[in-house]
Design brief:
The complex is a heterodimer of chains A (489) and B (349). With 489 residues, chain A is mostly helical. Helices cover 40% and strands 1% of the residues of chain A. Chain A has a two-stranded antiparallel ribbon with strand order 1-2. Chain A starts with a helix and ends in a 10-residue tail after the last helix. Chain B starts with 6 loop residues before the first helix and ends with a helix. With 349 residues, chain B is of the alpha/beta class. The chains are: A mainly alpha (489), B alpha/beta (349).
Chain lengths: 489, 349
């Protein structure tokens, strides 16, 4: 017997054992999984019987042996299928040897020797590998396979078929008997007084639903027939006797006492409304629009007077363009927040100061107050040339053609600065200067030596920049929709 | 029980395997004179040397990467050269160039001057500081073991091994290695911090007056012989199948790829990864005293082999999933055959 045959036979024997065990395990697993469901059919039958009993009909009546068979036969079939499937697994020598290798700790020597022994060319290392497995082969023959610990079946697995048995018996014994059903159905007409309540017809059956709530098709009964007539139509033994008496036209004269009694809404039934009466709450909730939510009146102080939108001085050129040269020292430039009205007398100095204080407080001092931008004080100390401007003026110390802007406002980027002041025939245009700055890369923060911790893994721990969750989500939202870069083959 | 008829062959194999282990132990002992700890890194470097591959060492500065390679060059009688990569380095700086030299008669001629790439053991220090152009000059040397300058092609002497180091955190002024070059490294080894007791040994050795002398315990011929021993280790079918499936499991969309790979991996391993898996596994099997590769050998070297061959995508970066996580998932998914059989049986039941 060659080495390969020895290994092969051993592997097959082991795998046969494994297969048998796996079949047992499959049986175990299937039982644990499906046994609780064996109650389902008997429970269904019991529910069906109860419903039939409540309705007073008998459509299906099964004995308890039949119910039990219905409960247990599918379970038995499932278990058999699981067992057969596990048993049908083909035997594998490699699997058996791998199992032996794992249990013996032979580092796959048995499986390797079996595979290498099939090679046509036997190199020194192949021979050595086969020879190396020989002692393990001897040990494997004497080895008994370990059994995998199997979880015991739960109590529910065993109790479920017993419960199915009980439920099946119960369903069979609670099944309505046909004779009793007929008797109960005819009882009101035979012996019960006409005004007897419907609940006394059957002691075991639940209380009948008020006829107003029954949902039966109108075609199934006479237009004014009481709901009980439908049941009598389904019972052929009682229907021929009752039919002539019950069909007495639309006026309801021919209604039987039982029908009348059962058609009256009973107080004890506690039905609050009839189907014909519209359900007011539901209707109102559907149709009536919701009343407007009462608004809490806000105090006047909570809503400050809305300010007119502030505009920057960029539009100051659209200001008063009268070009009046009544007073060369005074400006006619006015921003939008300065409501210019030539007709109105100028505000007093004190009022301006108060407004400026409030304004600067409201702005937090971050923006310059445009009201500050007033023409400089007229420092015309020279003798001019009549009404003509001094051609030698340089903008400082006297009247000039063009004033240079001054102050903080001129230093802030993007703040429009009027380049004309009063005294010119036309206000001219406003020039906005914006500076473009190229983005500059920031230095990457290096990991400090103190932040490094001792090694806990083969790689030194390198702290990743901790992304906040919202940042991570943001980045993902931006980049994930982009098409993935296709890897180069 | 029948015995193997080729007992002589088996004895020869045992002798060769024993020789391999002896030489390996000698070199490792010499490295241990200088290098403290880092046993896994030393084993990985030696495995790459014996398997005929190249190594990429990654770690923070000061962990002994350069020292390891330099000491290896001293312990093995190989020609050793070190290249400190800088951004302004050009391919000619490492491959060599033609120089105009003066002849005896007063004339001039062009003569090829070899660069530092021409050696047995090349330490490419901080390789990711070189530009891609210079990095690409290594491709031919690493794969074909030759360099081409102009019309001249120079065969590099065997054994040829490039051991490169790179720093993971000094990313400023560095150029990430392209996938084509990363694929040419057999292993990527992560050099970590020493343990506490190793710190004491390092301080005792490096702050005193004495210095250990490194002896040359092997040579090029012996290294080549050991390489042939490694190549002769057989690979059974189940181990090879496991290596193939491991590589395929790193490729998104493959039938073996777990969900994490499909969602988080942009580039999986190439067939070079499977070659590297088997070569590394052969060295490990020999060191473990076995004569054939087992699945556990393949799995043991899988992280070092596949770490640099798998590229995660943006989603993985955004969710903090690393390559190591992906490889862990792959290894867990592809459990050994016996465990797979058990799992399958359980699933059927």
């Amino acid at each position: 017997m060659s080495v390969r045959d020895e290994h092969g036979a051993l592997g097959l024997r082991v795998d046969r054992v494994l297969r048998a065990r796996s079949a047992g395990a499959a049986l175990h697993t299937a039982a644990a999984r499906w046994a609780p469901w064996s109650c389902a059919l008997p429970l269904l039958a019991l529910a069906l019987h109860l419903a039939q009993r409540a309705a007073g009909v008998q459509l299906l009546a099964l004995g308890w042996p039949a119910l039990l068979a219905l409960a247990l036969v599918p379970l038995a079939l499932l278990l058999a299928a699981a067992w057969m499937r596990a048993r049908s697994r083909p035997l594998s020598t490699a699997r058996g040897l791998a199992r032996l290798d794992a249990e013996l700790g032979s580092r796959e020597r048995l499986q390797t020797a079996w595979e290498l022994s099939a090679l046509a060319e036997r190199t020194p290392f192949v021979a050595a590998a086969i020879e190396d497995a020989a002692p393990w082969l001897a040990r494997a023959r004497a080895h008994e396979l370990q059994r995998a610990p199997r979880r015991p079946l739960r109590a529910g697995t065993w109790l479920a078929p017993l419960a199915a048995l009980f439920v099946a018996w119960l369903a069979a014994h609670w099944a309505p008997e046909p004779a009793a059903t007929v008797e109960l159905a005819q009882a009101p007409e035979l012996g019960r007084p006409p005004d007897a309540p419907a609940e006394v017809r059957s002691s075991g059956a639940p209380r009948a639903t008020p006829p107003e709530l029954r949902e039966e098709p109108r075609e199934a009964r006479a237009p004014d027939a009481p709901p009980g007539s439908a049941r009598s139509e389904r019972q052929p033994s009682a229907a021929p006797e009752r039919a002539p008496r019950e069909s007495r036209g639309k006026s309801g004269e021919g209604r039987s006492a039982e029908a009348v009694a059962s058609s009256q809404p009973s107080d004890s039934a506690g039905v609050p409304s009839s189907p014909t009466k519209p359900s007011e709450p539901s209707e109102s909730s559907k149709l009536t629009p919701k009343p407007p939510k009462p608004r809490t009146p806000r105090p006047e102080t909570a809503q400050p007077a809305r300010k007119p939108p502030e505009e920057s001085g960029a539009t100051a050129g659209r200001g008063t363009g009268s070009g009046s040269s009544r007073n060369p020292g005074a400006t006619d430039w006015a921003s939008k927040d300065q409501v210019s009205n030539d007709e109105e007398p100028p505000q007093s100095e004190d009022a301006d100061v108060d407004d400026e204080t409030e304004e600067s407080e409201a702005r937090g001092g971050l923006q310059p107050n445009l009201r500050d931008r007033r023409p400089p004080v007229n420092r015309d100390l020279t003798i001019g040339f009549g009404n003509q401007p001094n051609p030698d003026a340089n903008g400082r110390g006297g009247p000039s053609e063009q004033k240079k802007s001054r102050g903080v406002a001129s230093l802030v980027l993007g703040v429009p600065i009027p380049d004309h002041v009063k005294g010119r025939p036309r206000p001219g245009r406003t020039k906005i200067t914006q500076e473009r700055i190229d983005p500059r890369a920031e230095a990457v923060g290096a990991l400090t030596a103190e932040a490094r911790t001792p090694r806990s893994a083969p790689i030194a721990p390198i702290a990743r920049p901790a992304l906040e969750p919202w940042m991570r989500e943001l980045v993902k939202k931006v980049f994930l929709p982009l098409p993935e870069r296709k890897p180069t083959p | 029980m029948s015995t193997d008829p080729n007992a002589a062959d088996a004895a020869l194999a045992r002798q060769r395997a024993q020789r391999f282990q002896t030489v390996h132990a000698r070199i490792k002992a010499e490295l241990g004179k200088v290098l403290v700890g880092q046993g896994a890194v030393v084993d990985g470097v030696l495995a790459a040397l014996f398997a005929g591959g190249h190594v990429l060492l990654e770690g923070v500065p000061g962990l002994g990467k350069t020292l390891l390679v330099r000491t290896l060059g001293r312990a093995v009688d190989l020609s050793f050269s070190r290249i400190q990569f800088t951004p302004d380095m050009m391919p000619a700086d490492i491959q060599g160039t033609l120089l105009l030299v003066e002849t005896e008669g007063g004339g001039h001629k062009l003569e090829f001057q070899e660069g530092p790439l021409v050696a047995n053991l090349v330490l490419a220090d901080e390789i990711n500081r070189a530009t891609p152009k210079t990095q690409s000059a290594l491709l031919e040397a690493m794969q074909e073991k030759q360099i081409t300058v102009g019309r001249r092609t120079l065969q590099l002497a065997e054994p040829y091994c490039v051991m490169a180091t790179q720093n993971p955190i000094e990313q400023e002024g560095t150029y990430p290695l392209p996938e084509a070059q990363l694929d040419r490294f057999l292993f990527k080894l992560l050099v970590g911090y020493p343990e506490e007791r190793e710190y004491h040994a390092i301080l005792d050795r490096t702050t005193g007056v004495g210095e250990d002398e490194i002896a040359k315990v092997s040579n090029a011929a012996e290294i080549l012989e050991l390489r042939s021993i490694v190549r002769s280790v057989p690979v059974p079918e189940h181990a090879q199948q496991h290596a193939v499936r491991l590589v395929m499991a790193t490729q998104p969309g493959s039938s073996y790829a777990p969900r994490l790979v499909t969602e988080m991996v942009a580039l999986g391993s190439s067939p070079r990864g499977a070659q590297a898996l088997l070569l590394g596994a052969k060295v490990r099997a020999l060191l473990a005293g076995r004569f054939a590769v087992a699945e556990e050998d393949v799995r043991a070297v899988a992280r070092d082999v596949l770490r640099h061959r798998v590229q995660v995508n943006f989603r993985a970066h955004s969710e903090g999933v690393r390559v190591e996580d992906v490889l862990g998932e792959v290894l867990e998914r592809l459990a050994p055959a016996e465990a797979r059989a058990e799992t399958r049986a359980g699933a059927r039941g």
